[in-house]
């Protein structure tokens, strides 16, 4: 197969997706890499129908790569993830509206162009978590305890002003009390893996990043996110608050850290999606839309079946055991079993 990866400058030396690119090439697939932030691209010729089997984007929010991916989709090329799904999660304000409208547990979200405008939020909703609507990798996430601690107004035209180089829409959400540990759940084309790590809001809290069991409730929420947004490869940041799990971020093509054999699994998923197409925003949320992968862990189908069992009236029974993540041995010849052949 012939694939094109769009890789932002920020990820020039990042293991994900560079190791995936190397793995695909080792499996004898042709992979072209475009660096949208530092390349002159003759776009009218570079993006043509039939030029690649699929285009894959690994870029920062608001980066130039998304436009190129949309251009590829406009001439009928397959994109991983579906380009409409990516647009839906790259804008955190848009993602919050879509998720809440579908009943997903997302905090009340406020939007403003200037941080001082959040002073109008009732003081009872403080502390607030304030972050850029187009942020990524925890950039510029701030915990604001009280209205008087909001940043002072910025000068028009300054670097942090809405019309400046670092400006843009901001969102604010009431802080969800938690232990200082973030739960990160990854979906690799139908398989779910859970990890925990230190929250960026609590850097002093010592947390060893590791795989953890995935409960039925968190698995169901993660599966629903894939359905709502039409994502195949994605990650979800979840906090375990006093009222249950709360979604605080959604990322397309994340790092997949702590996923067992992440490079081989993600590479295989990219090939599968390139061959068979991605779900997209118009996908059915039924069982037929789930692409099963025969590699252990918790599947989206299992999460949905557990959700149906919980919803159905039944006699009291013992609670189901939590889903567990089970590392698998690395295959001896991954090229033959997963990725071989052009």
TrEMBL record:
- What are the ATP-grasp domain coordinates in residue numbering? 96-282
A GO molecular function assigned to this protein is: ribosomal S6-glutamic acid ligase activity
Q: Which keywords has UniProt assigned to this entry?
A: ATP-binding, Nucleotide-binding
Which GO terms are recorded in the biological process aspect for this UniProt protein?
Answer: SOS response
What Gene Ontology cellular-component terms does the record carry? cytoplasm
InterPro entries xrefs = ATP-grasp (IPR011761), ATP-grasp_RimK-type (IPR013651), ATP_grasp_subdomain_1 (IPR013815), CPAse_ATP-bd (IPR005479)
Here the segments flagged for biased composition (Low complexity) are 309-322
Please tell me whether the keyword Transit peptide is annotated for this protein.
no
Region of interest (Disordered), residue spans:
307-342
| Keyword ATP-binding carried by entry | yes
Q: Which PANTHER family match?
A: BETA-CITRYLGLUTAMATE SYNTHASE B-RELATED, RIBOSOMAL PROTEIN S6 MODIFICATION PROTEIN
What protein name does the entry list? ATP-grasp domain-containing protein
Organism listed in the record:
Streptomyces nigrescens
Q: Source taxonomy lineage?
A: Bacteria, Bacillati, Actinomycetota, Actinomycetes, Kitasatosporales
